[in-house]
């Protein structure tokens, strides 16, 4: 077994590999760029080596730098994680020449399967069902349009070396195909250093299901069940689960056996994933193979009990797999949420900055089989950089049933407190309550179909409104009681205050009466307009002023609500509801009702930069007449190119930015007449 390994990656996956290596008694070496000098993976590793400036092309993608770091530290092997060099055939070749072991598949398998075009040819030769498409390299946009017309729209334009949603576009007509080809090619070049593009038929209303395979260097290959990855946004996975609610045992076996046959055909000898696009009728077609560890591997680990990183290390060291196919058992259900630095209220555009607060939920397992796991590479006070992927963490839960795993996930997300940047937790918590998600009726179009106008905060209503009103009133009452004990004394006698309050949740007002507090449970009564008690909620919690999450029991159910103090109340976040809850006395409420509402400034005459990023292109000039939907500019952030389009017909009056400018969020790009 290896004594020392180097992790040629960063962020959560580097931390993940370090944890397993440490448990195995293996010393670890981290590498880092200037931007990651103070990163968590650098702190966790036993040793760390600086490899260059922030851009990945000048640091994490330089094979020579990685090899130099191995030689300098005596690392015997390299784990590539995912992304960066993990699927570059030249990397294990270069390592082997330097006498260093690659913890991953052999170069020939990477060549055969890592290239999306070649992998489809290999799959067809192995009699694996494949999606109709053009597997040859496409020279230009004109050829792309011609090929797409022959295949039939809609089509998927994909980078041959792609992954993680980069270099992918769906086109429904010739115009979208021409534009998508250029964008996909540009993204592929900047992300992978390879701008080859291919086109295939896009299967409508599909599901994305993948099979985890594991092979060794002795010809043994097994599959470890499937993962459902259909909840995607811009072709990037957001929620994953294992097993899939679609598959039955017969389909699972058929898909697994095809995946194993394909892996054996290329002598695959590590952890890898065979991805399929599946119809609602359980038909399935080979999509691609990722010759690396997948981002979503934790859900497979939780339902099988197999540490995939450990198996990769053991296989790379020459050990045989210690399990056979009949030994693989699926236990319970696991759900993973990818927590990204992005603004769900601005169409999920990237957000960068410092993590002023980072308080993940408690990790661990309960006696009744409920597990919470958080894979992350950040810490409170750290920075989310514009140079790398916007992932903050992967929150994974496991339970005996799918419904329980979803409920545990929902509560854990409610308890996940982040401040300083925008993040997608509000969207994820709302999704956990979505009836279609909970029913398992999924497709890769789920987000676009269920949120066609983008994500907006859920309005509090019904039981959730009562819970939020009750918690806001209880928190306010507890704060007041504490203040009275400290300073509200007159001649040694406590001042008496009315326990009747008005809680305003957004534009909704709820009259309440609060009883209890400090050393006993709360009772919060909901009143009708005429003062009658309509309902009473009992609350119990150990929350104390200053804590960021109110965790307790309401009506015998576990509840976690994020709490941020504001004037006269608290910003509350719960199950995708984000609402200011202001708590007033009766008189205060009467006076507030007389205050005029603030009117937001009209910014409709400006094109604003929706996220921090780099201006890659300006498509119009001063004086140009633009129509709704026309491309105005392209802004790059976190390796993704974002096209900004005109929302209405207008004339360009002034352009404030130029190509190459780094802009802050809401910076003015251009002004219209």
Q: What do these coordinates show?
A:
- This protein has 673 residues and is of the alpha+beta class.
- The protein has six domains: 100 residues, Rossmann fold (3-Layer(aba) Sandwich), CATH 3.40.50; 140 residues, D-amino Acid Aminotransferase, Chain A, domain 1 (2-Layer Sandwich), CATH 3.30.470; 70 residues, 2-Layer Sandwich (Dna Ligase, domain 1); 116 residues, D-amino Acid Aminotransferase, Chain A, domain 1; 131 residues, Glycoprotein, Type 4 Pilin (2-Layer Sandwich), CATH 3.30.700.30; 67 residues, OB fold (Dihydrolipoamide Acetyltransferase, E2P) (Beta Barrel), CATH 2.40.50.
- It has 17 helices and 42 strands.
- The strands form ten sheets. It has a nine-stranded antiparallel beta sheet with strand order 14-13-10-11-12-15-23-21-20.
- The protein is globular.
- The mean pLDDT is 92.
CATH class of the largest domain: Alpha Beta
Low-confidence stretches: none
Radius of gyration from the alpha-carbon trace, in angstroms: 27 Å
> What is the residue-mean pLDDT, rounded to a whole number?
92
- Major sheet: arrangement of strands: 14-13-10-11-12-15-23-21-20
Shape by Cα distribution: globular
Q: Strand tally, please?
A: 42
CATH topology of the largest domain, by name, is D-amino Acid Aminotransferase, Chain A, domain 1
Number of helices: 17
Task: Name the CATH architecture of the largest domain.
Answer: 2-Layer Sandwich
CATH superfamily of the largest domain: ATP-grasp fold, B domain
Work out the count of structural domains: 6
* Largest β sheet strand count, sense and barrel closure: 9 strands, antiparallel
Structural class, from secondary structure content?
alpha+beta
Approximately how much beta-strand content do the residues carry?
A: 25-35%
How far from one another are the termini? Answer: 69 Å
- Share of helix, binned: 25-40%
């Amino acid at each position: 077994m290896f004594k020392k390994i180097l992790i040629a990656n960063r962020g959560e996956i580097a931390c993940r590999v370090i944890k397993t290596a440490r448990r195995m008694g293996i010393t670890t070496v981290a590498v880092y760029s200037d931007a990651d000098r103070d990163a968590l993976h650098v702190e966790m590793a036993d040793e760390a080596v600086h490899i260059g400036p922030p851009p990945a092309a000048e640091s994490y993608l330089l094979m020579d730098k990685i090899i130099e770091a191995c030689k300098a530290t005596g690392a015997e092997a390299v784990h590539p994680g995912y992304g960066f060099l993990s699927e570059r055939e030249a990397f294990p070749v270069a390592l082997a020449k330097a006498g260093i072991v690659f913890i991953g598949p052999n170069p020939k398998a990477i060549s055969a399967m890592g290239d999306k075009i070649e992998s489809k040819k290999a799959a067809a030769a192995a009699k694996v069902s494949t999606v109709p498409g053009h597997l040859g390299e496409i020279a230009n946009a004109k050829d792309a349009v011609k090929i797409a017309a022959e295949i039939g729209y809609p089509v998927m334009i994909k980078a041959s070396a792609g992954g993680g949603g980069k270099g992918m576009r769906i086109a429904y007509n010739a115009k979208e195909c021409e534009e998508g080809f250029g964008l996909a090619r540009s993204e592929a070049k900047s992300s992978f250093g390879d701008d080859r593009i291919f086109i295939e038929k896009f299967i409508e209303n599909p599901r994305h299901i993948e099979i985890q395979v594991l092979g060794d260097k002795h010809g043994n290959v097994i599959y470890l069940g499937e993962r459902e990855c259909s909840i995607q946004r811009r072709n990037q996975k957001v929620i994953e689960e294992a097993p899939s609610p679609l598959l039955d045992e017969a389909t699972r076996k058929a898909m697994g056996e095809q995946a194993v046959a394909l892996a054996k055909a290329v002598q695959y000898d590590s952890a890898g994933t065979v991805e399929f696009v599946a119809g609602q009728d359980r038909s399935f077609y080979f999509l691609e193979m990722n010759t690396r560890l997948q981002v979503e591997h934790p859900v497979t680990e939780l339902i099988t009990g197999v540490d995939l990183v450990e198996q990769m290390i053991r296989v790379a060291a020459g050990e045989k797999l210690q399990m056979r196919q009949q030994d693989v058992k699926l236990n319970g259900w696991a759900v993973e949420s990818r927590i990204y630095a992005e603004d769900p209220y601005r169409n999920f555009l990237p957000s960068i900055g410092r993590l002023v607060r980072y308080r993940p939920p408690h990790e661990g397992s309960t006696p009744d089989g409920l597990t919470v796991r958080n894979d992350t590479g950040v810490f409170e006070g750290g920075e989310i950089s514009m140079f790398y992927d916007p992932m903050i963490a992967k929150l994974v839960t496991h339970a005996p049933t799918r419904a329980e795993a979803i409920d545990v996930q929902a509560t854990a997300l409610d308890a996940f407190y982040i401040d300083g940047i925008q993040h997608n937790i509000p969207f994820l918590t709302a999704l956990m309550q979505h009836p279609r998600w909970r029913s398992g009726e999924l497709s890769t179009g789920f987000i676009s179909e269920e949120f066609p106008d983008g994500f907006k905060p859920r309005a509090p209503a019904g039981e959730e409104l009562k819970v939020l009103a009750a918690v806001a009133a209880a928190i306010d009452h507890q704060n007041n009681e504490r203040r009275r004990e400290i300073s509200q004394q007159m001649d040694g006698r406590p001042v008496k205050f009315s326990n009747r309050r008005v809680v305003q949740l957004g534009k909704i007002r709820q009259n309440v009466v609060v009883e209890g507090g400090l050393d006993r449970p709360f009772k919060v009564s909901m009143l009708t307009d005429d003062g009658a008690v309509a309902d009473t909620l009992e609350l119990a919690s150990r929350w104390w002023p200053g804590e960021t999450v109110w965790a307790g029991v309401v009506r015998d159910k576990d509840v976690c609500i994020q709490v941020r103090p504001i004037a006269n109340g608290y910003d509350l976040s719960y199950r995708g509801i984000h609402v200011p809850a202001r708590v007033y006395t009766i008189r205060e409420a009467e006076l507030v009702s007389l205050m005029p509402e603030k009117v937001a400034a009209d910014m409709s005459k400006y094109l604003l930069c929706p996220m921090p990023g780099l201006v890659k292109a300006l498509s119009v000039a001063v004086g140009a007449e633009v129509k709704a939907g026309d491309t105005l500019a392209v802004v790059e952030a976190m390796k993704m190119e974002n096209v900004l389009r005109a929302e209405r017909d207008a004339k360009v009056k002034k352009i404030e930015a130029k190509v190459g400018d780094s802009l802050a969020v809401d910076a003015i790009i251009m002004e219209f007449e």
